Amino acid sequence: MNKEVKFTDKGTLAPAEHFTGTAWVHINVAPGEGYHTIVGTVAFEPMARTNWHVHQTGQILMVTNGTGYYQEEGEPIRLIKEGDVIKIGKNVNHWHGGSMYQSMTHIAIVTDLDRGKTIWGVPVKDEDYSSYTAAASNVENYLTSAAIKNHEDLWPNYVSKLQVTDPELIEIFDNWAFDEVYAKSELDIQTRTIITLASTIGTQSLAEFSMFVKAALNVGVSPAVIKEVVYQSVAYVGVAKGIDFLNTTNEIFKANGIALPLEGQMTTTPENREAKGLELMKATFGERIDQMRNEAPQDLQHIQYFLAANCFGDYYTRKGMDIKMRELVTYAVLVSMGGAESQVDGHIKGNLNVGNNRATLIAVTTQLLPYIGYPRTLNALSAINKLTLETE
Questions:
Q1: Phi, psi at 12, each rounded to 5°
Q2: Measured in whole angstroms, how far is the alpha carbon of residue 310 from the centre of its chain?
Q3: Where does the Carboxymuconolactone decarboxylase-like domain start and stop, copy by copy (predicted)?
Q4: The whole model's pTM is what?
Q5: How far is CA 220 from the centre of its chain?
Q6: Which end of the chain is least crowded, N or C, by CB within 10 Å?
């Protein structure tokens, strides 16, 4: 036991008999205050950790800063990060602490102290602590905390093979795409994931699409919305390019126990699809739709019919996504395809008309930059500047 008890603004130095390395404990709520509960803030320096131990009444950990490790007996070590809540069952043997290269702070809560106690065990051996996947440990060494956290939000406990074979590229890309780009594109996590998913269809990137279907499920995007992204894209990339993405979606859904087919989302009938589609086209693009239809040559009138009945009547009128999200999805697909500049212009105007302003379009384009590259991004931003500076 520590003979000298040290106290700083972090709290009291954790006792060496129960901890390896340097950790600090600050008691927020003590049992003597009339509660059978103890609440403490524990700050671990890198590589610091608790001994193996058991709480007879269980424990809750809430990570408030940094990145750390958590392990239950018989299970692999888990990477835990700011925002994570770990619920530890009664009599579960476990340990927790800072990660190899980063500190970690959590709030620890143990209740019902009158019904059980904490039983401390042996220290975690260095070789066991260091057994956490080499690639994951290395990635902590060169990725920022924000990059790790944002990547983990999408793909918990995922370790890329590229982290082993191409660590320099991962350092460049992940710190940029999952830290700097996030900071400059204020989007909620579901919107960010949906528009990136749509973009991968536009770039015909099936492997990355598969990753983002899984990410979408991980962040709570419904299967219906994921399917609507795929269906919507068919109107723009064509079914020949869309079919592989649909099949991949179905495979991932089945692997996750999602029954197919999903509940239908159609809202039109063969009789009213043109009228409903045309109504939505006018609501999105204004009365110029009538001019466009009237001025089309006679031998192209069928295309105007298809735009109303099929593109808008069959797809845009569906449930699952509202018009604001559908326009963002369409914009994401179009700017990612390249070669569709006039359509990008039209759908920037459509986005503005349905309530997606310049700031939203810039945020979406910024999010897509890592996946579509600078030329297509700069083209899209040029169009946004031209059209929004004229109208706002």
A1: -100, 140
A2: 32
A3: 167-243, 304-384
A4: 0.69
A5: 9
A6: N
